[in-house]
Amino acid sequence: MSTEKPIALEVVSVDKSFGSVHALSDVSMRFRRGVVTALLGENGAGKSTMIRVCSGVHQPDRGEILVAGSPVRLAGSLAAKAMGIAVVHQEPQLVTQMTVAENIFLARLGSRAGSALHRGGALVGEAKALLASLGLENDLPDLGGRCTGLSAAERQLVEIARALAADPHVLFLDEPNSSLTRKETDRLFDIVRRLRDRGTAVVLVSHRLGEVYEIADEVIVMRDGRKVGEGSVAALPKARAIQLMAGERLKAALDLAEAEARPALKPDAVPVLSVRKASGLAFSDVSFDIHAGEIVGMAGLVGSGRTEIIRAIIGADPLTGGAVSLNGRRVRFSSPRDALKGGIAFISEERRTSVFYGHDIAFNLTSNVLDRFGSFGFFSDRKRRAFAQASADEIGVKAETVDVPIRTLSGGNQQKVLLARALASNPSLVILDEPTRGVDVRTKADMYRLIRSLAHERGLAVWFVSSELDEILQLADRIVVVRGGTIADSLARGPEAARVVASALGEKIEDAGATALASDLAPTLGTT
Amino acid sequence: MGFASLRRLPFLKGQEAGLVGVIVVLSVAFSFVNPNFLTTDNLRNVLVAVAVVGIMSIGQCFVIIAREIDLSVGSVMGLSGLCGAWLMAAGLNPWVAVALAIGVGAAAGFVNGLIVVLFRVNSFIATLGMLSVARGLTQVISGGLPIMVDPQVMFLGQGSFLDIPVQVLIFIGLVIVGQFILKRSVIGQRIVAVGDNDEAARLSGIPIASTRIAVFVVSGALAAIAGIVYTAQVSVAEAQAGTGLELDVIAAVVIGGASLSGGRGSILGAMLGAYLLGALRNAFILLELSPFLQQMSVGLVIVLAAIFDQVRQGSFRNVGIMQSLIGVFRSRTR
Higher-confidence residue: B30 or B117? Predict the structure, then answer.
């Protein structure tokens, strides 16, 4: 039993506040060697703060940290590293102008002031040996090459290899698979299993519950800065974990699976967006329609060309061939600005490229439509704030007023502000790339409800792209599957769709999990 | 009027309120040593002395908010002032000459903007080039000789209206217009958006290229106005006018609370920053202190203003200064 394994790291009654916000209150937890512990919780539950406290970035206000049974003070991340605690961050932090091998051993630059990294062959050899010991020798192409050309998954591997270079006893993985495909995630989990078998305490933080439960031995659930449950995966099953994470908000979470009847579309109506034989950077011969009042979900693997199709249509990338019509008129946009004027609003998958972090909600919400609040290039601040307040309220942004700085909002609420910004320009088509990435369960439910009402009540055309199969299945009225840069399938919502989509994706990723998930979901989706 | 009620004034908050406080405290302190400091005459002297730098700092403030920098303002000021005087000497109507001189400044700014936007040259480098080119051009045109200004325009630098010097009126008028444009116009908010997050600005349909060019044009045009005012003030245009002023201008903007990382700043703050610098210089003269001390104190004020701004931004929340100092030396990973 795992309970008999030695404790690698323990925190006892830790408190941590930032100003008036209690990020952690009286949290105790222990991580055992040779055990994979999953740390679950919505955004803002305190998981990241927990990692930061355990890795020396933050000092706890109260409480103790014990490494292998003896209390320690982790003065900084270097001190934590010396104690055998390593963290793999969500966004790999690489020095892209250095080689892969240099990045793996980057910590040596910090720990030995005055002595240079020994360069070239020796370092590459060392990196090779390290990767071989992890069974990863074939996964990174060129250890002596720079990191500029690496894919997201390869960057993640470099980050992991770097964390493991110090041979840690405790390894924290912060949302390691948020940008990985299913196959890459599987490989990551293989590494995690190998580390566990070697006796490392692995702590996994992730939003993707399904995947977490494939690998975790123990689960700890946090909510609002407190620990609200812990146990083995058998004692604390997925449904129970969701319940604990969401707390009172369980109802909202369950609403996710609820399918509503949707109004029938007029079949002869002119589609809002019509794409014919379009080709561009990473796709060719793509044709599809989106009607008013319809939610079209675009499914496909990372790298299948989904994002490229969007970028070409809104004019961010060149469209090399084919025809695009908006409300029956032929269009070709030369920039996102052009597309916005034409009536297409786009919300990018990367929130940090969309938010003006230095400013308040009102600024962020109205940045597209200022000229509406006045004339001759000037505007009334009062009108702007009134408009921002009204649309923030309408969309359910959780903030006292629109004067609140946007960086104080949770990721989900920031996403709502971006949606409100997109709607402010009265578009006929809204494009959402990964609409709920990094958004907690509860806000996800809000977002789904919101998107549905936009399409089904306000009659907007909605086009979204998602890597999460259950999101596609729950939200889309029609599913378009992209594979290898072209449209592989177009299906109506329903139990059939679940199976076909899963296999369309599964074919390529050779994964039984996706099919299994689809058949799990099929009954709940079969209401239409 | 207490500190708290100052904050409630429209536009006046944060760094600006702090600056007003610092200026008031320093003025009172200086006036104890030399009662002449807090007289209307001396206030006027300070304002006259800072008008030229102040006018340029309005343009620079827009540039810095857009996360760019304009090092060429001193040279463009010299070039425009000289061009104006030269055109007047050539027999042109002095008012047309003034308009053309402003056009010269705007054109120099436009070139800066084009180089930054089209060729993606860092604005530090592009305007460093312009600094040199404009100064060289000034010397070529003048041949190294000073040019007299037409007496008709001299009142711009020497006249007064209702006992207020004209250049001070121009300065304050431009500050009011500039602050209004920054806070209440679409272009002003576009500048802020581009400086905060240019990718987000692009995706939300803001024309970032023309916004960037616009800030350089504004900065160039305001440098030209400063050049005319300065030339009118000293009655003669000479090739070295404005040399080195770019540093004072940037200092005024930074003291005024603008962030070199873009997206934040205020014209009113820049004006107060320019005033604080001018008042310090003036105080050192009135207190008969060494000009070397004056230079040191100006440098200190610049750095203190930046530190104050960081503290106000909350970068040191929950951390004592000593603790963070110790942290810097202990943790080599930061």
Answer: B117
A239 lies within 8 A of chain B by CB: no
Residue type, B250: I
Tallying the residues shown for chain B, one arrives at 334
The span from the CA of A56 to the CA of B119, in Å, is 44
Mean pLDDT of chain B: 83
Region of poorest pLDDT, from A174-178, A185-189, A192-196, A500-504:
A500-504
Q: Cα-flanking dihedrals φ and ψ of residue B240, to 5°?
A: -95, 5
Query: Residue B189 is part of a domain; what is its CATH number?
Result: 1.10.3470
Amino acid identity at B188: G
| B28 is a domain residue | no
**CB contacts, 8 Å: B193 with chain A:** 356, 363, 367
Tell me the nearest-neighbour CA distance from A355 into chain B, angstroms.
6
Instruction: Confirm whether B18 is domain-assigned.
Output: no
Q: Which of B77, B85, B95 is nearest to B226 (CA)?
A: B77
In order of A176, B9, B21, B269, B317, the CA distances from B309 in angstroms are 36, 20, 14, 12, 13
ipTM more than 0.95? no
Interchain pair A76, B264: CB under 8 A:
no
CB atoms < 10 A from the CB of A57, how many?
Answer: 18
* Chosen from A17, A338, A378 to mutate, greatest number of chain B CBs within 10 A: A378
For all residues of chain A together, what is the average pLDDT? Answer: 78
**pLDDT tens digit sequence for B154-177:** 777 777 788 788 888 999 999 999
Q: Is the minimum CB–CB distance between A375 and chain B shorter than 8 Å?
A: no
Cα atoms in the 13 Å half-sphere on the side-chain side of A130: 23
DSSP 8-state code for residue A4: G
Answer for the pair A458, A452: CB distance below 8 angstroms, yes or no.
no
CA distance B183 to chain A (A): 8
Q: What tokens appear for B201 in the block? A: 């600005």
pLDDT (tens digit, 9 = 90+) per residue, A287-341? Answer: 888 888 888 888 876 667 888 888 888 888 888 888 888 888 888 888 888 888 8
CB-CB neighbors (< 8 A) of B327 in chain A? 75-76
Residues of chain A in contact with residue B331, where contact means CB-CB under 8 angstroms, are 75-79
- How many domains does one find in chain B? 1
Please check whether residue A362 touches B, CB under 8 A.
no
Identify the three-state secondary structure at position A338: helix
Interface test with A, best of B186, B259, B309 (most A CBs within 10 A): B186
Q: What is the pLDDT at residue A305?
A: 80
List beta partners, residue A297.
A464, A479
pTM: 0.72
Q: Does B12 touch chain A (CB under 8 A)?
A: no
Q: How far apart are CA A434 and CA A452, in angstroms?
A: 15
Residue type, A56: G
pLDDT at B48: 87
Range of the domain at B121: 36-330
Residues from chain A that touch B184, judged by Cβ atoms under 8 A, are 374, 378-381
Cβ pair B203:A348 closer than 8 A: yes
Is B6 inside a domain boundary?
Answer: no
Residue A57, chain B, CB below 8 Å: the answer is no
Domains and CATH numbers, chain A: 2-94+150-248 (3.40.50.300), 273-525 (3.40.50.300)
Rg for chain B, CA atoms, rounded:
21
Shortest CA gap B59–chain A (Å): 19
B22 domain-assigned = no
